[in-house]
């Protein structure tokens, strides 16, 4: 059984940009694909994905298909392969507008398409509608995907690696575009990226994933200025300008679930208790709304001595916090709550 994502619990609030960072293979994209139900058929999802008070795992496929695009939009990570090469940009954007905005008049649809591209600062938008994908730069293609995503005026926008393969100048333009999209629409936004500079510049809050687990969550400024989890510290030390020191070793196998911390073999702060204790995220003080986040899933961090009764009690309290948080998010009309367990059913052990 392959646990691509294991026990992740998070909330995205209206108008907020929430970033998911981590190494390749940590489960970021799988998490993003699970929300609109875009995972392959051999994947199974357990837990709950609560959107506007409704668990998406409990609704029928017809209703979920209706919500895709109109309420939940997904911007894939590779614009070069996501756009149809034999159809014009105008046709592809217009198709999304006609479907999600229920418009039929061609001139009105074309005007809406040009308006979307103009809002995203596409140069000469009317002319670009007549172009084919191969005639556009990487940054322009990314704007087209964003326009398609915004066509349905969604409440939640998921952007998977929006700056992948782009040079520094275009990357900054895309970051600015996403900022303006969030401010103009008021939609919640989930940004999945391995580019730590993008996450720092763009996101309000950040979650750090390792081996399919969420190991730290908090305000972006806190995460990048004062990381608490050893993995987050190592991830930031690998950035240019922070020493570019790689994290030793390789990630664990997702087919074998370790009893203790998944980062134990690579951690420079590990302690004996880490071999047997897998701590969960817990509230450091008050509620997440009051303190802006939760403390890391690490028995070795913080002021408590590892292995002490206090550390173990604190870890147990984390489970109660997560359960209460799920209930609270389910009552929030515009909150998006994810708490899921994903695995490849072809690899599931009997």
From TrEMBL:
Keywords: ATP-binding, Cell membrane, Ion transport, Membrane, Nickel, Nickel transport, Nucleotide-binding, Translocase, Transport
Ranges of residues in domain ABC transporter: 2-236
NCBIfam families: oligo_HPY (TIGR01727)
Reactions this protein catalyses: Ni(2+)(out) + ATP + H2O = Ni(2+)(in) + ADP + phosphate + H(+)
UniProt protein name: Nickel import system ATP-binding protein NikD
Membrane topology value: Peripheral membrane protein
Subunit structure: The complex is composed of two ATP-binding proteins (NikD and NikE), two transmembrane proteins (NikB and NikC) and a solute-binding protein (NikA).
PANTHER family: NICKEL ABC TRANSPORTER, ATP-BINDING PROTEIN, OLIGOPEPTIDE TRANSPORT ATP-BINDING PROTEIN APPD
Record SMART domains: AAA
Location in or out of the cell: Cell membrane
GO term, biological process aspect, one: peptide transport
UniProt enzyme class: translocase
Keyword Lyase appears in the UniProt entry: no
Molecular function in Gene Ontology: ABC-type nickel transporter activity; ATP binding; ATP hydrolysis activity
Record InterPro entries: AAA+_ATPase (IPR003593), ABC_Ni/Peptide_Import (IPR050388), ABC_transporter-like_ATP-bd (IPR003439), Oligopep_ABC_C (IPR013563)
Gene: ddpD
